Amino acid sequence: MKVYGITNCNTVKKALDWFKANRVDYEFHDFKKLGITMDKLQEWDNRAGYEKFMNEQGLTWKQLDPEVKESIKTKTDALQLLQQKTSMIKRPVIEDGDFLFFGFDEPVYQLHFE
């Protein structure tokens, strides 16, 4: 299983703590250190739609210039922005085989991992 996120995100910390407490092994991919490939973003988009993982509620989105926000007209525009500003990706991203999930939701984790 692979977990994508950033180490100083409280939601990522909750998820990693849950995995440790429930003895779920994972590999961690740090967006800040490793970035994210366009291929991976396109894969997630194909599986879930970029709207599912583009966080428009977070500080990074809110701090964007209005012109930048208005320039997002296509899926390609959105994915390019997400690649540049990985903090806008809803975290954590959980990949476990066919399971792809964005965020922390304990009941969902319990159903999948226990």
Q: Can you describe this structure in just a few lines?
A:
This protein is an alpha+beta fold.
> How far apart, in Å, are the first and last alpha carbons?
14 Å
In round numbers, the mean pLDDT is 94
Quaternary structure type: single chain
Provide the domain count.
Answer: 1
DSSP strand (E) fraction? 5-15%
Counting DSSP E segments of at least 2 residues, the number of strands comes to 4
Tell me the name of the CATH class: Alpha Beta
User: Largest sheet, if any?
Assistant: 4 strands, mixed
3D architecture notes:
- By secondary structure, the chain is an alpha+beta fold.
- The protein has a single domain, classed as Glutaredoxin (3-Layer(aba) Sandwich), CATH 3.40.30.10.
- 51% of the residues lie in helices and 14% in strands.
- The chain is built from 8 helices and 4 strands.
- It has a 4-stranded mixed beta sheet with strand order 2-1-3-4.
- A hairpin with a 2-residue loop joins strand 3 (93-96) and strand 4.
- The chain is globular and about 45 Å long.
- The model has no long low-confidence stretch (mean pLDDT 94).
